[in-house]
Amino acid sequence: KQEVTQIPAALSVPEGENLVLNCSFTDSAIYNLQWFRQDPGKGLTSLLLIQSSQREQTSGRLNASLDKSSGRSTLYIAASQPGDSATYLCAVSDDYKLSFGAGTTVTVRA
Amino acid sequence: SQTIHQWPATLVQPVGSPLSLECTVEGTSNPNLYWYRQAAGRGLQLLFYSVGIGQISSEVPQNLSASRPQDRQFILSSKKLLLSDSGFYLCAWSGTGGSQPQHFGDGTRLSIL
């Protein structure tokens, strides 16, 4: 059974600081890894998807890396803003099924 | 572009009452469809997925069922709700084929009294 862990569970940083969010998974036989953002009481917004054959993906201030052999992914958010405050979830896919971590709740202080 | 709609946004139901949550997708054909539940303090759990009309796979034995009467419509149901059915229910869709991203709706907050 795939286990996904996200550390830390919560993070508070001043505006402008770079964010580093970690995700680890136990079974390296994955199709892809997705990072999502969830605002309180809302659904999930897809941020980045990394295919199992890729090492990283970038979108604007976001960069996600994947090391499948060691079962790790890192999401970097550059120059954080108060609007980046949310819970960030990573999920790994075995084709149809996503296994989620519990998330990292980020607070960016103005 | 593709959009996904879920309703209602919030629902308060008594124990033992029936349930019907609906999800529809626009702008795509033959999507894979998914129901997830997010319980308080826990991660998202896949409940059901469907690769076509009438095709439903269940991931977790429980008090709930799912149906897909039309290509882009996915319904989550229960005949008698339990207190443990409380949670945040999310519908998602993806394209067919391996390794497609999943896209989520805004969710339904279900409270059982």
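qc> The longest strand of chain B covers residues 44-52.
qc> done
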